[in-house]
Amino acid sequence: MTTETIEFQAEARQLLQLMIHAIYSSKDVFLRELISNSSDALDKLRLAAFRDKDLDVDTDDLHITVTTDPAASTLTVADNGIGMSREEVVDLIGTIAKSGTSQVLAKLREARESGQSEQASAELIGQFGVGFYSSFMVADKVTLITRKAGAHQGVRWESTGEGSYTVSDEPDAPQGTSVTLHLKPEDTEDELHDYANPLAVRTIIKRYSDFITWPIRMAPITPPAPPAPPAAEAAEGADAETDADTETEVVEAVPEPEVVNSRKALWARSQSEVTEEEYTEFYRHVSHDWQEPLQTIRLSAEGTFEYQALLFIPGHAPMDLYWRDAKRGVQLYVKRVFIMDDCEALVPEYLRFVKGVVDANDLSLNISREILQQDRQIRLIRNRLVKKVLSTVKTLREDEPAKFATFNAEFGRAVKEGLLADPDNRQAILEILTFASTHDAEQPSTLADYVSRMPEGQSDIYYITGESRSALEKSPHMEAFRAKGYEVLLLTDPIDEIWVDAVSDFDSKSFASIAKGEIDLGGEDVDDDTAKDFGDLLGWLTATLIDDVKQVRLSHRLTTSAAVLVGDPGDLTPTLEKMYRAMGQEPPTVKRTLELNAQHPLVTGLRDAHRQRPDDPALAETAHVLYGLALIAEGGELADPAAFVGQVAQRLQASLG
Ligand SMILES: Nc1ncnc2c1ncn2[C@@H]1O[C@H](COP(=O)(O)OP(=O)(O)OP(=O)(O)O)[C@@H](O)[C@H]1O
Question: Quick one: where's region A (predicted)?
Answer without folding.
Answer: 1-369
